[in-house]
Amino acid sequence: MNAPPLRIRWVDRLTPTAVLLVSRAWVLREVATVPDIDDARRAQLVDELIGYEPERRHALRNNFIAWLIMLGGVGLAHLAGIPPWLGFVAGLLIVLLLARELAVRALRWRLAHLTSPAQDA
Fold first, then answer.
1. Does residue 19 have a pLDDT over 70?
2. Is pTM, for the whole model, over 0.85?
């Protein structure tokens, strides 16, 4: 009862990677697009990307920027005459979208690094 290594199941869409904002299904789709590698190497790449955590730098700066966006959303919502918590939620969504985009870029960079010709030699 062995399933193909890159078959995307429902649980893969709900299972986060070490980055948390990217699902296992996303990793499976990205690895499936890599040409000219065998299934064993694909499975190895999936495992490496799922466990990959990009280097964390500038935590204080990033925290400051996130709070600035969220509290700025509160201020803008107040000026617009809508409940301030809606502005906070909108700011939080913006922060999460930016964080996910950065996580996707980091995972794509890692995949390119792992599949570069110099790495295989």
1. yes
2. no
